[in-house]
């Protein structure tokens, strides 16, 4: 009721950070770098920027605040603009990849850490910022970790610049030490005890277990909202679906009045208007049940949660050496994460956390802290970026926790294969151009190959479509109808060209929304693709790269596609079954692919990514001519025998090439 009865300014004054506002500002005045530690919900993200503004910092520059997650950047900016009674995008704005909601009068800017990282390419000293708040540092996202090293240099070069690092957990000493022993400011907590209940036996199906637990709470426990932690979108949807079903059964079979349950999913790909729903107060007499990914662990705070149900799992992007690429995989979360999750139940009053794992798993199987992303993922983009910032030897960069050398070398190798690095590890002309695009190296390469092969117009559309969530809409109750609609767009042997086809048809139907609905396409996704396309076009224009077209000569486009995916090429092994040309990893055609059910299967394909579900499925596949693979592979970029530093890579490369040639014969 608090949110309804109190004005926004009263709510601000009630936050724990408010009681220490003046001391905090004093410490910031006296120090160039400060680490701020406070419980989730204490007001770090929404208040710090405003305090800095109130203390005059915005008269000489922008106060920037970085977030590891897009959802958080958007939702917090919206909240702060409301608190400051200004329109979002005016004084308070946000920027995430392909979406800049700021203007020249913006003084408080929330952004993803990736956006700020890219800004350092254009302005190494970040002159427009007076203060940067590096928020959620405990998450140790890849980009935040790189920013640590870069901002440390900015701090040394610019006396007038201030940096505040915030963390929700207590192991903030590491951050303090990294900057030479800067002060750590603690925001006193205001939390209530949380009763933690472990599962007696390991649970087999945590979706089912969570649904059961939530229903039990709903029927037998007192008021208070429920928060369930799941690993990702699919599980969240399954959980919400099952909960709705149980509620329906209960209502129809019960003679008593069953209290209402408002079931609310939240994950990063959920449209913004649906995301905002979790913050809205439920109707009188209705209990909220939020089903979330670990986004609700620390980056978003929802008040009124009394019950937490924790599966003990989370999805993490991890480099998989067997596949030679990153894959999102489900892992047990760390003890620190489990404790954070439990803490969500004790913000408004004493709460309960139901852990769907055993106490022994907590003690013996969970790591104390999560492994920083930089130590577990592909570093392709980071390598490109640092190289362009003239960091010649990446092993010399000031990392808080350096990535394993093997990771760096693997990433360099992939960039070399794409032609972005030369034989001595320096950026090539292609590499320099690739840095200009806020895209993964593969997609940047595809664009540049589109330029080379004079089919940029077509490739640009494909890249834009690959940069947004799937545009195909497939409601469970109309699966057949929607599949038939999708099939009408199929271009034989290519999902990439199918995406192009969808976009072109949408365009020839005047980009209409009702046309999308009729064809089972997400209009929001297509609009987003159109926006991405126009932004990439701006970059191409700035680089003076003309928008050439091959007038839909499919094979030319296919060749450009092929050039980006040398690593993801596969050859036919059995029906619908392929193996990766490079490492023999099995990979399968997905039933939703345009290549499925053709009546025959092409010998060689490339794919955009592998998705691990019940099998390793290739996502977005195109048939290619094996000749192109040989032609466009790394040998295409002349290899000089005099270079030595990458000799080993070259050797591996040669072996691979021979293996491929043998395979093709
Ligand atoms: P911290 O960063 O310390 O975790 P925040 O500044 O994010 O804390 O949140 C402080 C309070 O602001 C929350 O308890 C919540 O009440 C409110 N709040 C934050 N974001 C939103 C939002 N998008 N909508 C409504 N309330 C919000
Ligand atoms: Mg926060």
From TrEMBL:
Coiled coil: none
Swiss-Prot/TrEMBL GO biological process terms: mRNA processing; RNA splicing
Keywords: ATP-binding, Helicase, Hydrolase, mRNA processing, mRNA splicing, Nucleotide-binding, Spliceosome
Gene Ontology CC entries for this record: spliceosomal complex
Family: Belongs to the DEAD box helicase family. DEAH subfamily. PRP2 sub-subfamily.
Domain Helicase C-terminal residues, every copy: 210-390
Known catalytic reactions: ATP + H2O = ADP + phosphate + H(+)
Positions of the Helicase ATP-binding domain: 25-188
Keyword ATP-binding set for record: yes
UniProt source species: Triticum turgidum subsp. durum
Entry superkingdom: Eukaryota
Name this protein carries in UniProt: RNA helicase
EC number(s) stated in the UniProt entry for this protein: 3.6.4.13
One Gene Ontology molecular-function label: RNA binding
